[in-house]
Amino acid sequence: MSAYREKPVTDAQTDLSLYIEGLLTVDAEQSEAEQTITAMDLVETEVDETVSQHTSLNAESNYEQDLPNNLDCLQFSVDDTSFMVPATKIASLEKLTRSLTRLPLLPAAIKGMLTVRGSSIPVIDLLSLMNNDDQITSAGVDHHQEDTIQFAIVIEGADYAIACNTIGAIETIPAGNIRWNNSSANNCLYSGIIATRLCPLLDVDRITESVKTLSITSSHGA
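RE: above sequence
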């Protein structure tokens, strides 16, 4: 009997719901507060907030620097959860025509290995990564779950891909529709949410840093 077991993903999905609710709550509270101050105070407050937000963003992440007015994003799903990722962070989309190669003693956050243009790279289970699931598994696989993995999003400039069940079209998102994550207390793998969709926007740079902490050598053959 295989020793491999997937951890429940409800923690990541619950964290995501709380994260979105928190961002929207902050927006509502700020809107009510602005209605109670005078015109002069409003000008001063806007200046202070602009400086504060700029400083916070530079300190916590360089992700938003030099962003265009519009951001091209790809929407995809992992199980029943939708995400968006900037198109500039995608190297390629791979249709999985065969099962991933499962190696022994992989962290639970790694679904298996995929050969792309002659190189073998790990395919990441995004929800397990968000759960900080560093459990080591055997080479066994939950085939029912693996059958739902149809695509792998290969990340530009990084040696890994993200497993997903479905992918949509690339869409242009106005920058004003993005509620940026300015607090390190929120889930660090999100840059923010697409407010019109309540869909999280992934911070690929931070995901890459998390992937680097996993115990995996990508030079294995598939």
